[in-house]
Design a protein that fits this description.
17 helices; Alpha-Beta Plaits; about 35% helix; disordered C terminus; alpha+beta; Uridine Diphospho-n-acetylenolpyruvylglucosamine Reductase, domain 2; Uridine Diphospho-n-acetylenolpyruvylglucosamine Reductase, domain 3; about 475 residues; 5-stranded antiparallel sheet; 4-stranded mixed sheet
Length: about 475
């Protein structure tokens, strides 16, 4: 190690103290591999500042010594965006000590949270005040506010409330040089130029490190109805979604789809799970309807009417309505168990994609047939958020495939083909999981050249040395194309 690096490590240790800085490889090791186990790196050390001021001083120190920084929240991302490279040159920056919920404003329905606040903790604190934060996902027990903002996370309630972009009212972030962008006060009208906070939302820590945010809260749910419906086709699912939208309006908070094969995988993989319906159906829909105190008295009646009309129009073939909160949660457990169940089935490649919502049924039919025809023996599984045009397009390998080998050969070719199809259908190769390092090269290959150039210009302006989360999302210079 060079004298300069040793001097940096000593200064960082002095700045943060033993609770905020470590070079112990055993303490660092659990945070060097991404959640999916696809990427493993090395780190110079791990820093965990407790305040925005400590982080600002640390990043100024990193810039002065030319030390790269990889920010990390709950390490629950899907694209390797919080994993350092294998060369061990970067400092791993943990935001997990910044866990203060600074304020809950019940009158204005807002919360000011630090970056390390775990999503489930925010849910619990908001609920104690009769409010809720309307974004949820399977990893809510580990995902942090900073990570959710940095990846512009979505989840199961985007249909009604939008992704993190729609829920962040104010932001605090530290730039590469240690300066602090502070705009936590939300203003409904503010025409002082660019909406700068939006630069950091979805930038995956490449422009600055989010330290706190003012988030939108909504009234607590007073009544909830969850419906599990059996459907004849993906096109019928789209028609059912449109019917639910017209009949229920803002009460429709979630509309998830899954094929029978995905439900079968969950029932086989997870003990104690039961099928909601007596018979199999080609497709299933999970519909969530909610109301606050103003609409609670009529929600059950409106839901029953909506369902009766859907049967009359032959939009579904069977349905079960949750009779209790326990049953509602059991329905959702089936949906949330799909990723683990499909991982257990063997080698596979996963794609988090979106196309215009009205075209999703046709895309699923076309792309599934194309992939299964071009790679005989594979099976496609599409499930997810039909209401906002985002599905998880998984391709499972033939039964004789060797896990690891298949993904690195056929799997890469399949992903390239899926991304080509998505682009041809005017969609996105990353709907909610971010680009990270997993899709960086594909974004470079398929992204709009003007948009990529603008992203590189912004990166160069805010992080000219390229020290913030290097190798993720976008690089400062175009990557050379392979002959």
């Amino acid at each position: 190690m060079t004298p300069d690096r040793e001097a940096f490590l000593n200064h960082a240790d002095e700045l943060l103290g033993p609770r905020g800085f470590t070079r112990d490889p055993d303490l660092i090791a659990p945070w060097l591999t991404d959640w999916r186990g696809r990427f493993t790196g090395k780190a110079l050390a791990m820093a965990a500042p407790a305040t925005c001021e400590e982080l600002a001083a640390l990043l100024a120190l990193c810039t002065s010594h030319g030390v790269p920084v990889v920010p990390q929240g709950g390490n629950s991302g899907m694209s390797g965006g919080a994993t350092p490279s294998a060369d061990g040159s970067a400092l791993l920056l943990s935001l997990r000590r910044m866990t203060t919920i600074r304020k809950i404003d019940t009158d204005n329905r807002t919360a000011i949270c630090e970056a390390g606040v775990v999503l489930q903790s925010l849910h619990e604190v908001a609920a104690a005040q009769g409010l809720r934060f309307p974004l949820s996902l399977g990893g809510k027990g580990s995902a942090t506010v900073g990570g959710l903002i940095s990846t512009n996370a979505g989840g199961t309630q985007v249909l009604r409330h939008g992704s993190m972009r729609a829920l962040v009212l104010g932001l605090e972030a530290v730039l590469a040089d240690g300066s602090v962008y502070s705009a936590l006060t939300p203003l409904k009208k503010d025409n002082r130029g660019f909406d700068l906070k939006q630069l950091f939302i979805g930038s995956e820590g490449t422009l600055g490190v989010v330290t706190a945010a003012t988030l939108q809260l909504v009234p607590q749910i007073a009544e909830r109805v969850v419906i599990w419906a059996g459907i004849s086709s993906i096109r019928a699912a789209r028609a059912l979604l449109e019917h639910c939208n017209r009949a229920m309006g803002e009460a429709l908070e979630g509309f998830e789809i899954l094929p029978q094969s995905s439900l079968d995988a969950v029932l086989q993989h997870q003990a104690g799970m039961r099928a909601p319906l007596r018979q199999d159906h080609p497709w299933h829909a999970l519909i969530e309807l909610v109301a606050d105190a103003r609409g609670a008295d009529t929600l059950q009646e409106r839901a029953a009417t909506m369902l009766s009309e859907a049967f009359a129009k032959a939009l579904l073939t069977d349905a079960a309505i949750s009779a209790s909160e326990a049953q509602a949660e059991a329905f959702w457990a089936l949906r949330e168990g799909i990723p683990a169940a499909q991982r257990a089935k063997g080698a596979a490649v996963q794609h988090d994609i979106s196309v215009p919502a009205e075209q999703m049924p046709e895309f699923i039919e076309f792309a599934s047939s194309a992939i299964e025809a071009e790679w005989p023996g594979t099976q496609t599984f599409c499930f997810g958020h039909l209401g906002d045009g985002n599905v998880h397009f998984h391709v499972v390998a033939p039964t004789d495939a060797v896990r690891g080998e298949w993904e690195s050969r056929e799997g890469k070719a399949i992903s390239r083909r899926v991304h080509d199809l998505v682009t041809q259908w005017s969609g996105s190769i990353s709907a909610e999981h971010g680009i990270g390092q997993l899709k960086r090269d594909e974004l470079e290959r398929l992204g709009d050249p003007v948009a990529l150039d603008l992203m590189r210009r912004i990166k160069a302006a805010l992080d000219p040395a390229g020290l913030l989360n290097p190798g993720k999302l976008v690089t400062l210079a175009p990557r050379p194309s392979k002959p």
